[in-house]
Amino acid sequence: MDNKNEEVLPEKLEDLLNAGYKLIDVREQDEWDAGHHSEAKHIPMGTIPENIENFSTAENYIIICRSGGRSGRVCSFLEKEGINSFNLNGGMNKLSLTSEKIIDLDDNIGTVI
After folding, report:
1. How far apart are CA 2 and CA 46, in angstroms?
2. Does the annotation count 65 as an active-site position?
3. Domain 7-103, what architecture?
4. Over the stretch 87-104, which tens digit does the pLDDT of each residue have?
5. What letter would DSSP give residue 49?
6. Where are the domains positioned within the chain?
7. Does position 1 have pLDDT exceeding 70, yes or no?
8. 42 Cβ contact partners less than 8 Å away, ≥ 6 residues apart
9. How far apart, in Å, are the Cα atoms of 72 and each of 59, 84, 86, 103, 106?
10. Of 65, 78, 83, 95, which residue is the catalytic one?
11. Model confidence pLDDT, tens digit, residues 61-74
12. Is residue 110 within 8 Å of residue 34, measured between CB atoms?
């Protein structure tokens, strides 16, 4: 995949995760607590620059937020740093309509706020 701020469709997410892509959730703590994808790593948008060492130029990252705006901005930043990143189209709002892997902190069914 070319990383020119390309979007990933929610229905392709599981295949890409199985292929080794990493899912990064950039929403705020309360949003994460209410519901997140079980395979996501939480790095809030405001902390991405200070966490840049957690990203590898050898990996592919799918970035997710609630609707796609914040994750798109994070993708643009990561691309400038040489990191392969892809925005999840529609964010958690769209993913929650089809995924059974949205959980809260207690591993119960999560919600999107």
Report:
1. 25
2. yes
3. 3-Layer(aba) Sandwich (3.40)
4. 999 999 999 999 999 999
5. G
6. 7-103
7. no
8. 24, 25, 27, 29, 32, 36
9. 18, 13, 8, 23, 29
10. 65
11. 999 999 999 999 99
12. yes
